Amino acid sequence: MAGGFAVSAGSGRQFEAKITPIVIMSCIMAATGGLMFGYDIGVFGGVTSMNDFLLKFFPKVYSKEKEKHLENNYCKFGNQGLQLFTSLFYLAGLIATLFASYTTRRLGRRLTMLIAGAFFIAGVIFNGSAQNLAMLIVGRILLGCGVGFANQAVPLFLSEIAPTRIRGGLNILFQLNVTIGILLGNLINYRTNKIHPWGWRLSLALAGIPALLLTVGSLLVVDTPNSLIERGKLEEGKAVLKRIRGINNVEPEFNEILEASRIAQQVKHPYRNLLQRRYRPQLIVAIFLQIFQQFAGINNIIFYTPVLFKTLGFAAVIIQIVNVLSTVVSIYFVDKVGRRALLLEAGVQMFLSEVIIAVVFSIKVTDHSDNLSHGYAILVVVMVCVFVSSFAWSWGPLGWLIPSEIFPLEVRPAGQSVAVCVNLLSTFAIAQAFLPMLCQLKSGIFILFAGWVVVMSIFVLFFLPETKNIPIEEITERVWKQHWFWKRYVDDDDPLRWA
């Protein structure tokens, strides 16, 4: 065990806790859900550009690929039909998370992660062995369902099981695994692209490794005390709380969770309750964070880098390594400087990098000519790394962390479900709209997203309260009721009257 620490409760009591091995191992195992999510993101984009894959499942796209040198530089990066197929992943996840909200509350966070692992494994089997487009679509839908369940349960699990002082850092393990998964997917595609004609199968089949890790990990971890107590397993919940905190005196924290559970038990319709005035601050913040995360321009940056790769082939690997390392930076600083500071600093960094990229492309890339010299390509790669690094220690991980910790227990699964739905819906919208926007706006698309970064930063500055080092069941009292704007919505009425 590591050294102990104490966290002040709202009533002046102290929540004692130690950073125990069981907490660290549970969080690492749970975060493998992010590894699966990231690997799919990293590997599938590469697979859908492999000639062997296109020739088998999308022969028309394959034929069109051969003629891309005749097309506008800004209009030749994809096919709407292929995009729609890829986006089935997000639509399936969106629908699945609605069911995952129920299982998370009624069956627990641990079992929901196990269901996610089972969906992942089934999807990998269908994709890796696909003989026709129908099998590929089924596999894609199953993987999306896995994402819906994992993204619902894992952030909640991490926020509830972690000691308050390091809750942010442990929660960001999920996003760290996402970035590692993306990097691994890119590296594996680089090798399998040279294996003909079944390299794409190997890329898709290797997703079974993180899927298996999540499934086995879900069998080994303990459920959170919050979930156990909420489901009436009081003695088991207290026993788990003692194990994960490394102490016997857990009464103050146990009683606080018990009170939150008492309120939660009275809520029969969490989605309907979520619309009540008292939960409006949390709901609005969670929704806007998900929209902003996708509209920051990260997909714009990642999708458009093929222009760079023609000049600097190593750019993709550099960018993904920066992505991973910068997420580690977030783990270190999120519980030290806070959520708001990281988001506001990143806003400045992201805005400047996107503006510089827009200027370079507007000058050097025309409709039918790519005039990026080696020097300009290096400049843009540096700016892309600046953007990716700032996103990776701010909006990337905090977009998942903050919604998982701001809702009170009685509506927490429903609130997380809404957050995941909005995230996946925003991702789907960007995926479908990006290529037409790129074709019409050209380099101006970077200015558009830079404008969004300004809006996001203003929102954070005025409307996002700080939640670092505050026990998760005390955030309503110590955050929302103290905020200059949101306190008017969170009154002192009995929460049961909203049930």
From TrEMBL:
Gene3D superfamilies: MFS general substrate transporter like domains. The chain crosses the membrane at residues 22-47, 81-99, 111-130, 136-158, 170-188, 200-222, 283-305, 311-334, 341-363, 375-396, 417-438, 444-464. Residues 26-468 form the Major facilitator superfamily (MFS) profile domain. It holds the Pfam family Sugar_tr. The keyword Repeat does not apply. PROSITE patterns: MFS (PS50850), SUGAR_TRANSPORT_1 (PS00216). GO terms for cellular component: membrane. It is found in: Membrane. SUPFAM superfamilies: MFS general substrate transporter. It is a multi-pass membrane protein. It comes from the Eukaryota. Keywords: Membrane, Sugar transport, Symport, Transmembrane, Transmembrane helix, Transport. Signal peptide: none annotated. The keyword Transmembrane helix applies. InterPro entries: MFS_dom, MFS_STP/MST-like_plant, MFS_sugar_transport-like, MFS_trans_sf, STP/PLT_plant, Sugar/inositol_transpt, Sugar_transporter_CS. CDD domains: MFS_STP (cd17361). One of its GO terms (molecular function) is symporter activity. NCBIfam families: SP. PANTHER family: IP12678P, SOLUTE CARRIER FAMILY 2, FACILITATED GLUCOSE TRANSPORTER. This is Sugar transport protein MST4-like. It comes from Dioscorea cayennensis subsp. rotundata (White Guinea yam).
